[in-house]
Each structure stands twice: as structure tokens, then as C-alpha cells.
Amino acid sequence: MPIAKAYSATSPTSGLHAATIERREPNANDVEIEILYCGICHSDLHQARDEWKDFMPTTYPCVPGHEIVGRVTRVGTAVSRLKVGDIAAVGCMVGSCGDCDACKAEDEVYCSKGATFTYNSPESDPGPVTLGGYSQSIVVQERFAFQVPEGLDPAGAAPLLCAGITTYSPMRHWGVKKGQKVGVVGLGGLGHMGVKFAVALGAEVVLFTTSPNKIEDAKRLGASHVVVTKDPDQMKPHAWSFDFILDTVSAEHDINPYLGLLKRNGTLVLVGVPEKPLPVSSFQLILGRKQIAGSLIGGTAETQEMLDFCGRHGITSDIELIPIQKINEAFDRLSKSDVKYRFVIDMASLNQD
Ligand code: NAP
Ligand code: ZN
Q: CA 36 to CA 322: how far, in whole Å?
């Protein structure tokens, strides 16, 4: 079996270290991809540190990484969309049952049998769990590999595979459009993509942040107003004014003030996944028939649609490119909301170990 260099965590507190892993030989429907760039999602940090132990415990060794862009190096005999040499991308999923309603609708992330995620999902080939993109190569079914539009910088495109689709999908599902007022909570990897998409879809966008030093960037990205949430006076003028708010916050926080900012029938969508459940005030929901919802990544059809949308609109992520040897420093900065606005690993650096 092919061997690949990788970085893995061996316990919640080990940090990430150089390792080698096995990849399978490509089957008929598989593509093998040499990974050029991999984004660092806050989910990688949650999972490597076992912060979701009650819901998605981590199997160690854990190789995170699900924002993958690379070059196709081998294809199986049944592969038709991709060929050797293509720039291709892999996101958060690498398998699903293929038969249920969600899979038939190419919304595989909601597979009734549970999608196979790119890392930490049970897997027998080679197993015991899937290993992600902090590695030299990956082998996936063609269905879960995407074409990256020409003209998009491959490093800046990598975060589209999670931060991009996770913010694009709910905006499409809830029909964000021109004439609407949209809030984005948190200016991190997901949040900055959320601002870009809401602006590109024509909405008026307000960014909610705990970091006053991000105000100028949020405006540059297209937000018309920025609210520093530590100051309640800045929240008040926006009461009852939003059609849609996307909450991307990775840590415990009070979501009830955001419900108060929604219009009648407005929707607050949670995409952030804090370690602990968040309390909700019934009053904030019933006064105004407001809705609170969640959204998980996106399916394959919508992911390719999102990439093509980015190709047409020239949208990529704002990134800090790092060698993999700086991964633990990057995790520490990410845990302090100190990244502008996505770390991406230059995988060529793996050769320096
Ligand atoms: P990130 O880059 O670290 O951004 C999170 C942002 O949340 C921070 O930049 C910060 O923004 C804000 N924040 C952090 N701590 C806060 C606190 N205590 N109170 C209020 N705001 C706080 O993380 P990310 O990669 O965008 O991921 C965000 C969350 O989404 C994570 O929990 C991740 O696991 C989850 N996620 C979910 C999906 C899905 O499918 N639903 C997919 C990917 C990721 P400011 O500095 O602007 O306040
Ligand atoms: Zn992610």
C-alpha cells in the first residue's frame, strides 16, 4: 500500500507531529491526489483535541484536514470527470451510502446512514478511521472530488471546501438575496467566507465580532456595518431588522441577543459547533415566530455549484500560508481567534522533515 508523510495527533494534548500513514491503491472509482494545500478548520482543532468527545469522540492517531486542493496523480478505470494532472479538491466527506434520499439528491452530507467524513470516520480501507489532508496524498471516490475552476488560486481555494460550502449552503437553502439584511457572527474562517457570499448574493451585511481589530477588514470584505458585540449599545439599533443571521462562533456564547435582532419570521442558523449546548429563550423565539436552525457543510452538487460560483465571482479565502512545521503555533493562534482569516498549509513543506 502507498505510504504518505502526514502530521497526526496521538492524544488530546499531544499536539501534531510528523508521522507516516497508509493510503489504499486506487479502486476503479477512485482518484489519487497529491495534496498541494490544506486549510486549517477550527473543526480540525476541536477534533484533534477531542473537544467533541460527547458526540464525536476522536480515534487516535488523528490526521485532520478537510480543505484539500491537489493534483490528480492516478485515476481508476471507471473515473470519467477527472484525469491525471487536473487540479482537484476534496472537502469534508469521502463516502456515503449512495442510496438514501439525501444521497440521491447529491446532499450526501445528510446521508441517512451517516456520511463518511474525511477524517475520524470509521473506515476499513485501510482503516480503522479515515485520515485527512494534513498529508502528502489522499485516495477518494471520484464522487467526492471536485473540479477547481481555472483562475482560482489553489491555496486560496482550499478553504472553500469547508469554510466556503458551510456558509454558502445555508445562504442558498434559506434564499439569501438582494434586498435582505443578513448578519454574520464571528469573523474567522467561516465568518469571512459568509460575509463574502452574502455580499455576492446582493444582501446588506452586518458583521458581529468580539474583536475590534477586525472592523476595517470586515468593511473591506463588504460588510456595511460592524457591531462589536461586547458593547450592548451597538446591538440595539439593529433590533427586529434581520432576515437571516449566520452564527459561526466556535465557543460558548449567548445566542439570545441575536434572536432579538431577527425580524418576524427571521432565521438564525448555527454552523459553529461549541463544545457545550447553548441555552435558548422560548420568549425570544415565540415573539416574532422566529426560527433557529443548523446546517452541516453541504452536498456534492452544492459544493461544485459553490466552486463554480466562486470561479465566476473571483472569490477565494483570505489566507495565511504556513509550512506544516508551524501547525501547533497555528492551532494556538486559531484558539485565540488570531488568524486572517484562514491558515493554509503549503504541503511542499512536508518534504523538509
Ligand atoms: P475560527 O476561524 O476560529 O472562527 C471562529 C470565530 O468565532 C472567531 O474568529 C471569533 O470571531 C469568534 N469567536 C471565538 N470565540 C468566541 C467567543 N468566546 N465568543 C464570541 N465569539 C467568538 O473557526 P472556523 O474554522 O470559522 O469554525 C467556526 C466553527 O464552525 C467551529 O466550531 C467549527 O467546528 C464549526 N464548523 C462547522 C461546520 C458545519 O458544517 N456546521 C463546518 C466547519 C466548521 P471574532 O474574533 O470576529 O469575534
Ligand atoms: Zn471544516
A: 12
